[in-house]
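Supplementary notes for students who missed Thursday's class. We covered one full example, reproduced here. Read the sequence, then the structure, then the short commentary at the end.
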Amino acid sequence: MDQDMMVSARVRLLSANRRVVRGAEGLWIYRLLTQVEPETYGSKLAYVLVEASASPLLRELPERRSALLDEAVEVAKALGTSNPYRAKMLRRAMAARQRERDGRS
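Structure (token representation):
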């Protein structure tokens, strides 16, 4: 893992001064940090992935929305069972993925 990228992600996270960084920047930060600290950042990554899938920019891109939701489910599943956010994020991601599938059928 590139240490400069890790430092950059942490600096952006701290300078954002928000509980959760959203959008493309949040995806980049949480994807990167989840690789090294999955229990700390995985739930936030799952949250941002679900949120990103609902973006109006992806309205005409169902494959991209599905990919984001599949990733969110996998990230949430990977969280340890003792993680206090695992169940909540897994339910949220799975429900969003099901809504997406139901909307396409």
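Commentary. Residues 86-104 form the longest helix (19 residues). Residues 22 and 51 are 8 Å apart (CA to CA). If anything here is unclear, bring it to office hours.
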